[in-house]
Write a structure and sequence with these properties.
It is a single chain. This protein is an all-alpha fold. It has two helices and no strands. Helices cover about 90% and strands about 0% of the residues. Helix 1 crosses helix 2. It is elongated, with a radius of gyration of 38 Å.
């Protein structure tokens, strides 16, 4: 190869490198913008999910308090039924666990 051809090849490579650097900067800017958009979408979605979870937790918590209050009132109103039920459940549980399992 002659010096003239080497010079032209080097100029072409320099031109390609310059274009590649420009495109690299454009590509990085586009990716940063896309990720910024994605980040804002994810942040908004996470906020909505957190709010919904908090609302569901509060509703569930209130239901548990309501059921506990109802059970407490029922036990105070008729304690012997619960005492008898607990005794029967304990007896059945004891029978099931206490069976002899000889082969």
């Amino acid at each position: 190869m002659s010096g003239f051809e080497d010079k032209r090849i080097n100029e072409a490579l320099d031109l390609l490198n310059a274009v590649a650097r420009d495109k690299k900067a454009e590509l990085q800017a586009a990716m940063e913008n896309k990720y910024a958009d994605l980040s804002s979408v994810v942040t908004a979605f996470a906020g909505r999910v957190k709010n919904q979870a908090t609302e569901k937790y509060e509703v569930g918590k209130q239901k548990v308090v309501d059921v506990a209050t109802d059970v407490d009132a029922s036990v105070h109103k008729n304690p012997w039924a619960y005492i008898g039920g607990a005794a029967v459940a304990g007896l059945l549980f004891g029978l099931l666990l206490g069976r002899c399992r000889k082969d």
